Amino acid sequence: MHPIERLRMVARAAGEGPALLAQEAAGALAAFAGDPAGLVTACRRLVDRQPTSGPIWWLAARVLAADDPTGEAWRAAEDLSDDVTPAALAAHLPDDLTVCVLGRPELAEEALVRRGDLPVLVVDALGEGHGLARRLARAGNDAELVPESGLGAAAAAADLVLLEAAALGPTGFVAISGSRAAAAVARQAGRPVWLVAGVGRVLPGPLWDALARRLGPAEWDGDEELVPIDLIDAVVGPAGPVGVARALIDPGCPPVPELLREVR
């Protein structure tokens, strides 16, 4: 496939997890290494078409800042593939608690399958919960599918609300719609809220601000939403659960100026 066509395919993709999408994008960007101007345009196009994907921003920033863009693209793809966040989350989830999740989160799903011993309330956000509930049941979890109308009750009934960030920045994070309500209910009910933010999900302030501008004002029927960071008790990454401030210290990519304005 020609690099331009591959780039267009990635830019138009919908329904793929952020990490898988970024791994595909790495192959497309690697082909532009001999064309610096084309590489900048390709990176801008990607973030404009996939504005809520933290790994896409992280990948583009790493490639644009590198002396060897091709090598950096493949290294970033390898980092995403080797992300140990699911294993770290599985190891740190306490025993004998009920977890509430929304939809079918990419990294949290793998962690819960690894555990196979926890009761899970799966809120059917965007109609994506059925597949997760079935897979968790096969893995040995006591998984209960909850309709979206029961989101508040599930968040209050669980011992832990587990959300997943598509992108995380100094003031908030992007997650599946309903996450803000779930986090707010959990906070009011005195339940902890953990945010899963694996490799490539944490962005430096300037890139986070650029992402938030592209996301625009709240849409009542959107698939994703911005959630304030102060609703979160801990962030889970490759090192396991840490405080929010610590999680934001090292985003793993530079705030390259080439991505701070939109290209249409």
Key words describing this protein structure:
single chain; 264 residues; alpha/beta; Four Helix Bundle (Hemerythrin (Met), subunit A); Rossmann fold; 2 domains; seven-stranded mixed β-sheet; three-stranded antiparallel β-sheet; 12 helices; 16% strand
User: Order of strands in the sheet with the most strands?
Assistant: 3-2-1-4-7-9-10
Number of domains: 2
Order of helices and strands: HHHHHHEHEHEHEEEHEHEEEH
Total of DSSP H or I helical runs spanning 4+ residues: 12
Rg estimate, integer Å: 18 Å
Beta fraction? 15-25%
**Architecture of the largest domain, CATH level 2?**
3-Layer(aba) Sandwich
Share of helix, binned: 40-55%
Describe the structure.
- The protein has 264 residues and is α/β, with parallel strands linked by helices.
- The protein folds into 2 domains: 3-82, Four Helix Bundle (Hemerythrin (Met), subunit A) (Up-down Bundle); 85-247, 3-Layer(aba) Sandwich (Rossmann fold), CATH 3.40.50.
- The protein is 47% helix and 16% strand.
- The chain has 12 helices and 10 strands.
- The strands form 2 sheets. A 7-stranded mixed sheet has the order 3-2-1-4-7-9-10, sandwiched between helices.
- Strand 9 (234-237) and strand 10 (240-242) form a beta hairpin.
- The chain is globular, with a radius of gyration of 18 Å.
- The protein starts with a helix and ends in a 17-residue tail after the last helix.
- The model has no long low-confidence stretch (mean pLDDT 88).
